[in-house]
Amino acid sequence: MEGFPFVGTLIEVHADHVLIAGDPNDPTVRYRGTRESRPMVDGSEI
Predict the structure, then answer these.
(1) Which of 1, 12, 7 is nearest to 45 (CA)?
(2) Per the domain annotation, does 2 fall within a domain?
(3) Whole-angstrom Cα distance, residue 25 to residue 4?
(4) 5, 17, 19, 32: which has the fewest Cβ within 10 Å?
């Protein structure tokens, strides 16, 4: 799934990463992403 785009909501910004909400119906689904204009999420988190 590397390079596969997805839609999420940016919910937190940290010095070295961001947190993205991946499912609007389940607030517990969060992904850690890189701090880039298009954050990358490690495939192991999906």
Answers:
(1) 1
(2) no
(3) 21
(4) 5
Q: Take residue 22 and report the two structure tokens written for it.
A: 């991946």
**pTM of the predicted protein model:** 0.67
For residue 36, how far is the Cα from the chain centroid?
Answer: 11
3 in a structural domain: no
- In a domain? residue 4: no
Look at the chain and report how many structural domains it folds into: 1
Which candidate, 2, 3, 5, 45, places its Cα nearest to that of 19?
A: 45
| Amino acid (one-letter) located at 13 | V
What are the φ and ψ backbone dihedral angles of 43, each rounded to 5 degrees? -60, -25
Range of the domain at 37: 9-45
